[in-house]
Amino acid sequence: MPHIEQLSPHVADLIAAGEVVERPASVVKELVENAVDAGAHTVTVEVQSGGMALIRVTDDGCGIAPGEVETAFLRHATSKIRSEYDLEAIGTLGFRGEALAAIASVARVELLTRRGEDTLGTALTLEGGVVTGREEAGCPVGTTLLVRDLFYNTPARLKFMKKDAVESAACLAAVQRQALAHPEVSFKLIKDGKQELLTPGDGKLRSALYAVLGRDLALGFLPVEGSGDDLSVSGFASLPTCCRGTRGYQFFFVNGRYIKSKTMTAAMEQAYANQKMVGKFPGCVLHLTTRLNAVDVNVHPTKQEVKFGSERQVFSAVYYAVLSALGADQSRPAAVVEAPRPHDTVTQRQTALPLHDFTAPRTSGTPRTPLTVPGGGTWSAGRTGARPWTPPAQSAAPTRSRDAGTAAPPPPMPESSREERREPPATLRQTENVAAPVSPPPGGGAPHPADPEPRRAEVPAPAEERPELPWRVAGELFRTYIVVEQGEKALLIDKHAAHERMNFDRMRAQDYTPMSQELLVPAVFTPAPEEGAALLEHLETLDRLGFEVADFGGGSLAVRRAPDYVDPGDIEATLTEIAGKLLATGSAGEAERRDELLHTMACKAAIKGGWKSAPEELERVVRAVLSGAVKYCPHGRPVAIELTRAQLEKQFKRA
Ligand code: ADP
Ligand code: MG
Question: Could you say which of 80, 249, 352, 513 has the lowest number of CB atoms within 10 Å?
Fold first, then answer.
């Protein structure tokens, strides 16, 4: 064995640098965080060749005192904490005093900085962590950090760098996160001479969201807000219909710091249970604000993971905030009318989506101290109208069933009479709505909820309340879509999807007992062995769903009782589907399995698309949809879309 020796400071620095500076994007992250901590209002980031050739971060923050520029590059040198006690309540993004030392040890660095009170600034150059030059310099107040030839002295690290395009994308992502974390700061990113991002820095999260995601994507987000004893949650989350194939649009922040949190991810996604499509993920930009000492940020070198004092409290806060935002949302997807020629296309989707007040809860920032405790000024948690979350009671769906309860839950809907099913399509029935909801039509025509012209303002105006206008069923299309006329709008309702949701909510309510009937002749069938075993293992569950199943011997099962809405000819298929779900949810929790099974039952109990339905059935569905309680089917498909008179007039060139 060779002898044991302490490594030279240079080698120790290189090793430490590996933890903090993994790739160009880590440099960007650290420098931008320093700029934010310095109270900058504007931060400009330039990268060339993926950041490998050059990274320059310029801010208009407080600058560094001439006597401290060298110190800033020493390891464990920081202005942000002083004692071990400060570690318990960290209010700045940085605190470890490692970033500048780490960056300088693996690159050629130039610093140019001036404080407001100094007439001259300082220029300092370093190479591989060693100061190579220092002079006084005239420069604006603030700091510019230039990092060239990253990893020039660590060839091993250099080998691991990806293509420039990949590295610059990572740099962009790093700036985007900071932009979403700090709407009060204006961020600009210039990549190889081209501006890639500019946020206004107006203090509104909504503006930052628009700048980062672009208008089209941003329109698919709903404002989220909630506050409780010690925590507040605010931001935006996807409409269930705007979920995407990846988790790439999930951003979580705690006290202004971008973090990754399994708890917050799980809580947010849980809020979409039974209203988003399988395999799709909601996006979000969620800010959690809490007492600084309720979260430990000193658990990870890049500070992207944190430890919460109470993960449970965080889960509830996020879950209920998102759940109530989804519950409060009354928007409906607009019908998209395709025009034959591209330049004629009306981009209804963009203009007709109901617009929300996206104004962020944050009052305009106090940038010099970007992070303060809740109530301390930077954040005003829980605006008017924000519904505080309640502690997680029994796991059942709290908000939804409450919402659904505003209109008395409809009694079980009689199934469309079976003999009618194979009839040819009926002519459209004109069903005048007798029991129409309350208020008379406002004189002089209702305001147009959808403006056919694209709005000029980047940020849409608040939506008006959905008026309770009288309505009538104008007919049914393809025995599938109910056409409802209300004020200046037509609503197309997918009758099966809507009824499926109504059933699902009813079945999920605690006191639901299925109406089931004894079969005159037991239905006997032979499922695949695995499926048969799954069914026999869950006889009690099947009983709760309304099926009495027994082992018939020889691998066959006998069904003696079944829910009355399941056609005898459909019993085998239904139980096979249930068996499949029992197998698929083997490792899932009880609640998730129950929901999966109820999806099947709700679907079976729903009026079917393509089949004739009684006018009263259709009206009941319409009423539920108009009440706002029914928005998505349990698989996340919308139950209704809107078509406005203005849209039609535009298409017919009347407007
Ligand atoms: P930390 O951010 O953890 O304190 P760094 O190594 O990133 O450590 O920075 C060291 C110190 O240099 C900071 O504490 C701060 O005082 C100073 N500093 C770094 N960047 C800037 C900047 N852009 N503006 C003003 N001061 C800065
Ligand atoms: Mg720092």
Answer: 513
